[in-house]
Amino acid sequence: MQKIPVIVLLILLLKIQSNAQTVVGGQFNSLVSAKFKIVSSQSSLNNYQGELLSEGTTNEKGEFKSILNLSSEQPVLLFIDQFFYRLWIIPNTTLTIRKDTKSDYDFMGLSDKHNDFLYQAGIMMPYKVPPRISTQSFEPEKQIAYLDSIESFRVKLFGQIFENKDVSPVFQSFCKAEILHFSLFNKSQYPALLKLNSSSKKQDMPMDYYQFWSRFKVFDDSCMSNSYHNSLNDLIEFTARKNLKANNLDMEEIWKEEFRVSDSLLSGRPYTMQIWKTHALLFINRYFDFPALVQREFEKYRKVFPSSVSLDLIKSEWVKKSGKTLTKPDFQLKDQNGNLLNLKDLKGKVIYVDFWGSWCQACLTQMPNSAVLQRKFKNRDVVFLFIDFYDTQEKWLDAIKKYKLTGVHVKADKKDEGLFDKYFGIKEGFPRYALIDKNGVLVTTSAPHPNDGKLVALIEEHLK
After folding, report:
1. Of 268, 300, 323, which residue sits at a domain end?
2. Cα 460 to Cα 375: distance, rounded to the nearest angstrom
3. Is residue 2 scored above 50 in pLDDT?
4. Which residues contact 222 (CB under 8 A, 6 or more apart)?
5. Which residues lie across from 97 on neighbouring strands?
6. What angle do CA 31, 32, 35 make, to 5 degrees?
7. Which residues contact 102 (CB under 8 A, 6 or more apart)?
8. Residue 65 lies in a domain
C-alpha cells in the first residue's frame, strides 16, 4: 500500500479541521414552529444579554439545526418557546437533543454524557429544582439539610455517569462550581425570602446558620458557573456587613466595604473581579443614588480594566440616569375611585413616588415602613404617590384593601410603560422609588427605600 507523505497528511488534517463545524440540533415534538435562539457568555459584562450564537424557528416537526462558531467548550443557553436549557457544547462536534411527547430527553454526540448529567442533576433546567423547602414556615435546619441532599445527589451522580473517566478540567470546574455554589447561594437567600414572606413568623436565624460560608471556594477566572457568581455576590455582601458589625447600616457604607472586600478576595482573579465590579456599578447606578461612590469606583475601574468591553455600558447607564434627573415628568393616571390625577396638580409639594405591584414581595415588605413615614410627615407638604404596574384592576384594588395601604394610589397600564421608563427607568426593576421637588423637577430615580434613614433628610432638604 502506498504511504502518504507526512506533509500531505498534515495538509489533509488541517483541511478536515478547517471544515469542521459545531452543530446543535434536535427535535421537540411539542414545539412546532417555535422560535429559538442559542446564547453564550451571559454576564454583567454584557448586561446579561450574552452573545447570540444562532436563532431561528423549528419546522413543522419541531426540528431545528444550528451551526455555531465556537473555539472552546462551554455552556450555552438554548431558549426555545418559553423554556430554556443549559447545554454543554464541545467545538467541532455535533450535539443532538430530542424530546418526545413525554418528559424524556435523549442526547447524542461526543457531549452526550455531559448533557445527560446536566439533565439528571437538574442543572440543565434549574427552574425545575425548588431552591427551598418552604418560605411559609421557619425551618432553617431543614433548609440546610435539603440543599445538602441536592449537593450530595449531584456529586454521586457525577461519579456514576463518568465513572472516574477523564473529563476536561473546564467541565469538571463548571460542575464542581455549580454543585457547591447552588447550595451556598440558596442557603444565603433563604433568610431574605423569609423576610419577604408576610405569612412566615419572623424569627432570628440560629447563630451558626451562616457557617456554610466557610465552604466557599474561589475558583479560577475560567469558571463559567452562574451559581458561582451569584454566590460570590452574596458572600461579598455578607462579609462586608460582618466587617462593619451591623445589619442596618447606611447602604453607601456597605457598598464601600463591598468594594474593599472584592479587592482582597479576588486578588489574582482579574476577570472575576471585572465581572463583579461591573455588576456592582450597574446595580448601584440603577437602584441607589450614590454618585460620588459610582464616580470614584468607575475611575478605578477604568485604570485597572482599560480594555474592558463594559466601559461604554457603564458610562451609558450613568449618562442615561443623569439625563432623567432635572426633567419635569408629566403624566396623568386614574386613582382607585376612577378619578384622573394629573401630576401637575401636586405642584408645590414634595412627591415621594413608590413604584410597586401586588406581585412584588419586596415592595410589599416596605409598605409598613412607608406608613410610618406618612405619619411622620402628616400635615406637611409631602405626597406619598404609589403607582401600580403589571397588575389587573382587581388585584391592585384587592392589595390596597388587604394591606390597608394609605397614601395616594394610581394605576398605570401597558400603554404607560414607555413613558415611565423614559422618566423613571422602571424596566430596570422594582422596588423603585423616586423624588420630585416642589417645582415638579425630578430629583432622583433612585430615592432611598422607606426604611433608609437618609430618606427623611432628603425629604426635609426639599421641603425647605
Report:
1. 323
2. 14
3. no
4. 170, 173
5. 26, 107
6. 75
7. none
8. yes
133 in a structural domain: no
Do 150 and 251 belong together in one domain? yes
Asked if 168 and 203 sit in the same domain, the reply is yes
What is the DSSP code string of 284-322? HHHH---HHHHHHHHHHHHHH-TT-TTHHHHHHHHHHHH
Say which CATH number the domain at 409 has.
Answer: 3.40.30.10
In this structure, the number of other CB atoms found within 10 A of the CB of residue 1 comes to 3
For 10-33, what is each residue's pLDDT tens digit? Answer: 333 334 344 468 999 999 988 999
pLDDT band at 452 (very low <50, low <70, confident <90, very high): confident
279 and 340 both lie in a single domain: no
With 0-12 / 13-18 / 19 or more C-beta atoms within 10 angstroms meaning exposed / middle / buried, residue 139 is middle
pLDDT band, very low/low/confident/very high, at 101 (cuts 50, 70, 90): low
Radius of gyration of the chain (CA): 26
Sequence-ordered list of residues with C-beta below 8 angstroms from that of 257, at least 6 positions apart, any chain: 240, 241, 243, 244
At 88, which helix (H) or strand (E)? strand 83-89
Q: What is the DSSP letter of 382?
A: E
Burial profile 101-135: b = 16 or more Cβ within 10 angstroms, e = fewer: eeeebebebebebbbbbbbbbbbbebeeeebbeeb
Maximum CA pair distance of the chain?
Answer: 102
Judge if 78 and 104 occupy the same domain: yes
Instruction: Tell me the average pLDDT of the chain.
Output: 89
Do 346 and 316 lie in one domain? The reply is no
Are residues 104 and 154 part of one domain?
no
Residues 239 and 385 in one domain: no
pLDDT in tens, 404-443: 999 999 999 999 999 998 889 888 888 899 999 999 999 9
Q: Total structural domains in the chain?
A: 3
Coil, strand or helix: which one is 238? helix
Residue 94 lies in a domain: yes
pLDDT of res. 199: 52
Structural domain that includes position 172: 140-323
User: Considering the domain boundaries, does residue 339 fall inside one?
Assistant: yes
Place of cell 401630576: 343
